[in-house]
């Protein structure tokens, strides 16, 4: 690439070149250690004599802005106190809109970017060490060969046919989903699926019903479209359908494993939800984020498989069961909105990157995904058992677990008034990351407690970490001897 230098006219050629190079180095536009073009090449590009360019390089070298290496070239040497160039900002007509976006909350963003503690009970994150790297590498090599046949062309907006067919088969096998591959839209993770549905279905002022507590990112996505987001309480049977207000256009639920409390939605409540949505003409978004891992009880069909009205959009993701950085997910769309959502997807990003799609299609087709899920299921089951042991035993005087039969997180409700923030602070000093349930409530938290993910913490580390948590609790919230006797330290 040519170095961006503008030479105007025929006067003071060396001065023009010097001033532009000096300003570019001092402002940081040319970074420290960056190599400049050889004097002969730059002279040819700018239509100058080589001597003019060489003289400028020498002057910059004298000022210690360039350093020459014999036989190699000339390299930028940024001054230690390089002043930052300030850009004047003109008043913008969209200033209020920009300010609203700047003020829009980005829940869970900080938690996902922070440096994890040695013992991290973070949710929604798997252990990378258990991912089948060799199998995935072979699938990526296959994808590179497939990509070579279609290189230089955009892919289909709805996703590669091979992956859509693989997803339709996988969803039917594992979740009882009834769909054709034409209803499957490949997305860059579940979050993009939520955003596409919100863009397609919502106008400013429309009402969206979400679970309270619930997934705060979903609430933020709907609110960003100007929607009126209404929190609906949950009980042991899931979303309290009777609280869904008239005029609701969209209903967001996590029926397989309520986020963050963990209980499944009862069958009676599911039927009631479908009937209420049909009366309203509303679309239900079923977020099926971690239902692949079930530890007890009979498996339940997805809400979409019970849908007789064509109103359930089933959202799934491979980020939780594989790796978050893959950014691959999908949504099984009701037939009535397939074309509209595809249009929004096309205008959003044209299509999801094809290389990962080719690899994932082969990964699913060759059976690697199911084998990976089975292998991880046994690992997560062992970790879950350790959590149950501690919270049903030594930690029982302080916390009560919400019954959950799937996923890889549990919720622990405080048994008595407890300073959760102080517990978190003391735990972090012991290199333990704990997460409060209160952060998943939009309004005042009805229940204080902890959200405990066990996808990213080893089984043996759970014992070490919770022994330290027990010691902290005994210091900040001591209980009577009779209460503490409800469990014994292993």
What does this structure look like?
The chain is an alpha/beta fold and 490 residues long. Helices cover 40% and strands 14% of the residues. The protein is built from 16 helices and 16 strands. The strands form four sheets. An eight-stranded mixed sheet has the order 4-11-10-9-8-5-6-7, with helices on both faces. A four-stranded antiparallel sheet has the order 12-13-16-15, covered by helices on one side. It has a two-stranded antiparallel sheet with strand order 1-2. Helix 6 (133-149) packs across helix 12 (354-365), helix 8 packs parallel to helix 9 and helix 8 (190-201) crosses helix 11. The longest helix is centred in the C-terminal third of the chain and has 24 residues, at 368-391. The chain is globular, with a radius of gyration of 29 Å. The N and C termini lie far apart (65 Å). Pfam families: Aminotran_1_2 (PF00155), GntR (PF00392).
Lateral arrangement of strands in the main beta sheet: 4-11-10-9-8-5-6-7
Per the principal axes of the C-alpha atoms, what is the gross shape?
globular
Residues in helix, %: 40-55%
N-end to C-end Cα span: 65 Å
Number of helices: 16
What is the averaged pLDDT score? 90
Query: What structural category arises from helix and sheet content?
Result: alpha/beta
- What composes the largest sheet? 8 strands, mixed
Specify Rg, calculated over alpha carbons.
Answer: 29 Å
Q: Low-confidence runs (pLDDT<50, min 5 residues)?
A: 481-490
Percentage of residues in DSSP E strands: 5-15%
Number of strands: 16
């Amino acid at each position: 690439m040519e170095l961006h230098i503008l030479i105007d006219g025929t006067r003071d050629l060396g001065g023009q070149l010097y001033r532009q190079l000096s300003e570019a180095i001092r402002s940081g536009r040319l970074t420290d250690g960056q190599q400049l073009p050889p004097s002969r090449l730059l002279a040819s590009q700018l239509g100058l004599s080589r001597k003019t360019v060489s003289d400028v390089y020498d002057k910059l070298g004298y000022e210690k802005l360039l350093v020459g290496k014999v036989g190699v070239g000339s390299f930028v040497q940024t001054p230690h106190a390089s002043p930052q160039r300030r850009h004047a900002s003109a008043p913008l007509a969209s200033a209020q809109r920009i300010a609203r976006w700047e003020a829009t909350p980005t829940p869970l963003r900080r938690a996902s970017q922070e440096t994890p503690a040695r013992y991290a009970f973070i949710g929604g994150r798997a252990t990378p060490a258990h991912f089948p790297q060799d199998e995935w590498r072979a699938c990526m090599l296959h994808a590179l060969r497939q990509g070579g046949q279609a290189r230089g062309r955009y892919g289909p907006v709805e996703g590669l046919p091979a992956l859509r067919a693989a997803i339709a088969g996988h969803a039917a096998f594992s979740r009882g989903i009834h769909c054709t591959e034409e209803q499957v839209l490949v997305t860059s993770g579940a979050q993009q699926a939520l955003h596409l549905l919100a863009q397609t279905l919502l106008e400013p002022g429309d009402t969206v019903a979400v679970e309270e507590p619930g997934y705060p990112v979903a609430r933020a996505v709907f609110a960003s479209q100007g929607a009126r987001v209404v929190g609906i309480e949950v009980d042991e049977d899931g979303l309290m359908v009777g609280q869904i207000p008239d005029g609701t256009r969209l209903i967001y639920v996590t029926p397989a494993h309520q986020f963050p409390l963990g209980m499944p939605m009862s069958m009676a409540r599911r039927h009631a939800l479908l009937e209420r949505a049909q009366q309203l003409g509303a679309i239900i978004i079923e977020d099926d984020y971690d239902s692949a891992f079930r530890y007890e009880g009979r498996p339940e069909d997805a809400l979409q498989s019970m849908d007789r009205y064509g109103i359930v959009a089933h959202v799934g993701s491979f980020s939780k069961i594989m790796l978050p950085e893959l950014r691959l997910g999908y949504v099984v769309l009701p037939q009535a909105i397939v074309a509209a959502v595809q249009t929004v997807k096309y205008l959003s990003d044209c299509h999801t990157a094809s290389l990962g799609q080719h690899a994932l299609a082969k990964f699913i087709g060759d059976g690697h995904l199911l084998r990976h899920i089975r292998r991880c299921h046994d690992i997560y089951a062992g970790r879950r058992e350790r959590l149950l042991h501690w919270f049903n035993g030594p930690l029982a005087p302080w916390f009560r677990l919400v019954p959950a039969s799937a996923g890889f997180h549990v919720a622990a409700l405080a048994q008595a008034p407890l300073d959760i923030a102080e517990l978190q602070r003391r735990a972090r000093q012991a290199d333990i990351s704990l997460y409060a349930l209160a952060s998943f409530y939009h309004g005042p938290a009805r229940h204080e407690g902890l959200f405990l993910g066990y996808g990213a913490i080893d089984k043996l580390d759970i014992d070490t970490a919770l022994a330290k948590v027990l010691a902290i609790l005994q210091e900040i919230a001591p209980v009577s001897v009779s209460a503490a006797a409800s469990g014994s330290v292993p």
